[in-house]
Amino acid sequence: MSDYAHTTWRLIYSAPADGATNMAVDEAILQAVAAEQVPPTLRIYAWEPACLSLGRAQPVADVDLVAQRAAGFGLVRRPTGGKAILHVDELTYSVIAPQQEPRVAGGIVESYRRLSAGLVRGLERLGVTGLVADQRAENRRLEGPVCFEVPSDYEITVDGRKLVGSAQMRARGVVLQHGALPLRGDITRICPLLAAHPDPDRVRARAATVEDVLGRPVAWEQAAEALVAGFSDALRLHFERGTLTGQECAWAEELRAGRYAAEDWTYRV
């Protein structure tokens, strides 16, 4: 990991936004990177209101829609795969870079492992110890509708409990990986929102928040600073603060209206 040539990426801190906006912005950045209009980008963001997101191919039947709406949470379908995540009290990151960029080069698993080095370094800066990010997942037969219930290959765990849920897509020669880092709160809040009503005790035994593992609260800003520093240290990156370009904003508006806020996308599976 340490033999990367030092390079500069763009860093964007986004204001909290609804689920459709957040997913549209990630894809708009992908389009801009593909068009070589902007450099590789690390985006750090949050969700307002809290939102339940589904993986690209996950059936909407996995959701208890009555419970989801009654709770006041949004619902969005991600462009990436994986299972349901309740985005609340968390820090979310996205990495968007050309496939030939050494830090995301190779297959999905290989690039996943490369980027995990930055996530691990960031968590270590927060004081998290005992992190594991280099193991293949076991108990795949136990998979359910909850992203954090069972770790995937090479995802980040502490004492066997999943701490970061990440997913990836590739389009136009660009890699988009985004992921959720739960900071605090009840990790089982997602259970009543799903039709299967997963066992909260089982989810709690297999997933954790940063506050769970540290025994103290961590502010969003502190977590963001640590994560950015972790990516910088582990992947030899210099970050320049930036904002979305006018073209990215226009694409994000189009993608939000035409896809991520549209029922024919959200309910298509």
Task: Explain the overall architecture.
The chain has 269 residues and is α/β, with parallel strands linked by helices. It has a single domain, classed as Bira Bifunctional Protein, Domain 2 (BirA Bifunctional Protein, domain 2). The chain is built from eight helices and twelve strands. The chain has helices spanning 19-34, 65-70, 108-126, 200-206, 210-214, 220-235, 246-260, 263-266; strands at 7-13, 41-45, 51-54, 74-77, 85-87, 90-98, 131-132, 157-158, 161-162, 165-171, 174-182, 237-241. The chain has a six-stranded mixed sheet with strand order 10-11-6-2-1-12, sandwiched between helices. The protein has a three-stranded mixed sheet with strand order 4-3-5, covered by helices on one side. Strands 7-8-9 form a three-stranded antiparallel sheet. The longest helix has 19 residues, at 108-126. The mean pLDDT is 93.
How do you describe this structure in short?
The protein has about 270 residues and is an alpha/beta fold. About 35% of the residues lie in helices and about 20% in strands.
SS elements, strand count: 12
Poorly predicted runs of 5 or more residues: none
User: Which secondary-structure class do the elements indicate?
Assistant: alpha/beta
Q: Return the CATH architecture.
A: 2-Layer Sandwich
Rg over C-alpha atoms, rounded to the nearest angstrom: 17 Å
